[in-house]
Amino acid sequence: MILHASCIAYRDKGLLILGPSGAGKSTLALEMMAFGAALVADDRTVLRSEGARIVADAPDSIRGRIEARGVGILHAAPHGPVEVVLAVDLGRPEADRLPPDRRLDLLGRSMPLVLGAGRVHLASILLQYLAAGRADTDLRER
Questions:
Q1: Which residues belong to any copy of the HPr kinase/phosphorylase C-terminal domain (predicted)?
Q2: Is the pLDDT assigned to residue 137 strictly greater than 60?
Q3: What is each CA distance from 125 to 32, 35, 53, 68, 116, in whole angstroms?
Q4: How confident is the model over 18-43, as a mean pLDDT?
Q5: Which of 1, 9, 61, 137 has the most C-beta neighbours closer than 10 Å?
Q6: Measuring CA to CA, how many Å separate 51 from each of 41, 85, 126?
Q7: Mean pLDDT throughout 66-89?
Q8: Other CB atoms within 10 A of residue 140 CB
Q9: Pairing assessment for the beta strands 109-115 and 103-106 based on DSSP bridges
Q10: How many angstroms separate the CA atoms of 25 and 30, rounded?
Q11: Which pLDDT value is given to residue 138?
Q12: pLDDT at residue number 114
């Protein structure tokens, strides 16, 4: 399966960046790369299932390349395949301050989903999510 999406890896965990054209998928990936993430794929991401995992990779034709709007296509060290553990949708805003555990279903598997349209500091938020996870949802009500 090939999705119109970008993907980065951070501490060997993949983040799938979804959204319509012009939503900022490449920009978010570049910002996360500046904080230490690595590029897996930009604009088109190949997904495959491996047992209980979803693995992302880049098509060979765009491996190691990322678009910077208004600048051009930039080279980047390609990370290679990574297990996707989190997704963000830049086309949908999050209305809740402490949202429920949202999920994205792909290839018969489910992963956490963050709604990120218009969210400031999204790169640092997502990097922390990848590094340490999200606190138990039961704790939100205390």
A1: 3-75
A2: no
A3: 10, 11, 23, 22, 10
A4: 97
A5: 9
A6: 22, 14, 25
A7: 96
A8: 13
A9: antiparallel
A10: 9
A11: 39
A12: 97
Assess contact for 64 and 39: CB atoms under 8 A. yes
Q: For the residues 106-119, what does the mean pLDDT come to?
A: 95
Residue entry with tokens 């489910």: 110
Predicted local distance difference test score (pLDDT) of residue 136? 61
Where along the chain do its domains lie? 2-137
pLDDT at residue 96 greater than cutoff 80: yes
Express as a percent the part of the chain with pLDDT over 90.
Answer: 92
CATH class of the region 2-137: alpha beta
Instruction: Please give the Cα distance from 21 to 25 (Å, whole number).
Output: 8
Q: Would you state the structure tokens that stand for residue 71, as one six-digit string?
A: 């600048």
Residue 57's closest CA among 73, 69, 45, 43?
45
CA distances to 35, 44, 59, 80, 113 from 99, in Å: 25, 28, 34, 32, 10
Q: Which two tokens stand for residue 33?
A: 């790369």
